[in-house]
## 1
Amino acid sequence: MKEPLTHYKHLKVGPTSQQEEYKNTQIQSLLDQLESELVGLRPVKQRIKEIAALLLVHRLRKNLGLTSSSPGLHMSFTGSPGTGKTTVAEKMADILYRLNYINKAQLLTVTRDDLVGQYIGHTAPKTKQVLKNAMGGVLFIDEAYYLYKPDNERDYGSEAIEIILQVMENRRDELVMIFAGYKEKMDKFYESNPGLSSRVANHVDFPDYTAEELVSIGKLLLDEQQYVLTPQAEEALYRYIDRRRQLPHFANARSMRNALDRARMRQANRIFSSNQEILTKLDLVTIKAEDILKSRIFES
């Protein structure tokens, strides 16, 4: 029989205590950082806020002695490379730590090579050592689908998955897992490993950046190093993005960073080759259109 609502009147959470609890966790500052440091990703930021709210309410209920099943903490981050998955995972580790769901604000990032051995008896100790190192914090497994290779009978990835599953179930209060990778491949990975999928409660999809967002990211990256784009260079950057994203291995913000690193190199070579007797500060901080248009992207 359900208890009448009047039974819970004495358990009221006053505005002050609720606000103090929220303030003490400093969650808002982390969410504000996420908002200011990452361009775009509106659905991602909203999903992280929802998860943080659920965890905070669970903590309030627990403090009042209310029955509440532990919220699932394991997560899946899907999306293309360079869309901020690792950065958001770092913020998530901070949130979980501030709310006392983990013992340390640590994110350990690994791939298949860190978990799977090359011969019999090698995988178990490798995987267990990684889990031991991550215990108390968050373990981020990038491109997790490479753990599972059903076409290779001699592959030891399934052994690593079994060990991970045991820890996810038996020590879920001591370690949070985040599996990451391309959405399509991750969906197939979960379909092939239903035991794993059932233990992952929170799925966050990271969309690709728009051209406008990539240019904004580029400007932020340049501003950090005290460079500026001319209006013509900004136009050239849009053209670069349009061509580059149609080629293989495009990695969003990561590709943006690489492109601007090369643009800075061309700017330095342009200045060096000009033999100018007098260089102004403006010369040294300005990226021109030619510094971008000389990319091999425009050769074809």
## 2
Amino acid sequence: MELNTVAKRRRTDMHIVVPGDVITTDTGFMRGHGTFTVGDELVASVAGVVQQVNKLICVQPMRSRYVPEIGDVVVGRISEVGQKRWKLDIQTRLDAVLLLASVNLPGGQLRRKSAADELLMRTMFVEGDVISAEVQSIYQDGSPSLHTRSLKYGKLTVGSFVSVTPALVKRCKNHFHVLPCGVAVVLGNNGYIWIGKSSDEESQKTDAGKPKKEDQEVTRSFREKTARVRNAVLALAAQGIAIFVTSVIYAYEDSEEFDVKEMVKDDVIPEFTARAKAACVTGDL
């Protein structure tokens, strides 16, 4: 494959290869994970997505667990409440850790956590809660440490949870978006995606830091919009198309001629994902 083709594909992060495919014959590139060299050819050793960082080329496997990096935005589910920490499933080899010292207290208080705060940990997050967070550091055993110190992170209460292959979620500067239809999405780098109300609609909290009862009530039209966005994301994943805000908007807009229930049909999915797929191929996204 020619170098200019690699550069063109790199803009979408969706150049998919299988073992044995020649990625490039240019000797100016360095070999990364998932590749090996045969003479002057850089060849893929796994099936996945070609990723390029400056002169380094690697292949991210399509069916692998998420490998966390510092600064990644993730969506996770609380799996355990322990001593001064929560454990979360973020689709990694080991559970992520969220320390009590790495969260904002209810009401946004800024002070050192005490023993009383440890007794109130279950008033913040309990098993099964879905939250958004950022990877703060990586421990020596490979497990990530998270934090939710920014106001944009925290519990996600009203919406739908979707799981896709992590390699399909495109790395962007911003992973929090409000679509033109009014539905908010959190595109986690770990392949977990949250679709629901925007943070502005959930900003009114009680003194305990929990959403008010009226904030948790949603209209039928909003539920339908949420379901349409969810089906659009799953359709993009089924077609192997990069998932980020533009591709989701394309799929949502093109699906409006179909009923929400029809969006899951195999013969309908290619019709409303064609524009997003063509834009990925041409690099127009």
